[in-house]
Amino acid sequence: MIPQPDRRLVDAGLVRRLIARQFPQWAGLPVRPVASNGWDNQTFHLGDRMSVRLPTAREYALAVEKEHRWLPVLAPRMTLPVPVPLAQGVPGDGFAFPWSVYRWIEGEPAATGAIGDLTRFAADLAAFLVTLRRADPAGGPGPGLHNWLRGGPLQVYDAQARQAIEALDGQVPRDTVTRIWETALDAAWDRRPVWFHGDVAAGNLLVRDGALAAVIDFGTCGVGDPACDLAVAWTLLTGASREAFRAGIGVDAGTWARGRGWALWKALITYASDPHAKRVVDEIVQES
User: Fold this and answer.
1) What is the pLDDT of residues 192-222, one digit of tens each?
2) Which of 72, 210, 236, 285 is the most buried (most CB within 10 A)?
3) Are 98 and 141 in the same domain?
């Protein structure tokens, strides 16, 4: 089991100092926190058209160079806007990790923004992920600590999932979730690696005018098994929208089963702390 990172948070004052020292051309621009932050990174507005993104732990900082290397390659090929890095900062002023300046992308996270038509949203998301899978994977980063082994076999989280099932006995249908989990483990990936995003979650999907407008936060991206990108089918979608996503994504039954396994693993290990996790488990069980 991978240990939890030691997260360290910063304030706008430190960001101003970093900008002033390393990118003085932007020193006069205001710095303010974004309305909704993620876990792996803190993000700040830099003026009206840029953002500053700082990893919250050493493990998350492993993604910085990867994003600067690969996002400029992937962005022109995508069906939707993705973050484009403008500058890479270095440790300094008490901040221990590399960090980034990005062009700002307008939109509200799907976690809080209003989605007009969830079925259309699901189809657009599937089209984006299909395009991402078709990008040339040559030289791309395989599974590793930089993305918490996304793109690799689910077996790496087998012990953690089974421990959670034992701990939740009586709260989740033990036999059913065990069967779903083992079905996912048995559906091995035996094809060539492809690009995947790694964290297709509501907070990383931007909505504008009710429609999917951009996909952000490629910190867990890589090349390998794309099944991890299917977890959104149970964490955000349901009913007709899930069916539209499945039809659009065009994966085989084994990949769909592994995607369900990724969603189940995350829901099980966060069940006690995340009220949304119960809904995810219920969705997975009902589908089975």
Assistant:
1) 999 999 999 999 999 999 999 999 999 999 9
2) 236
3) no
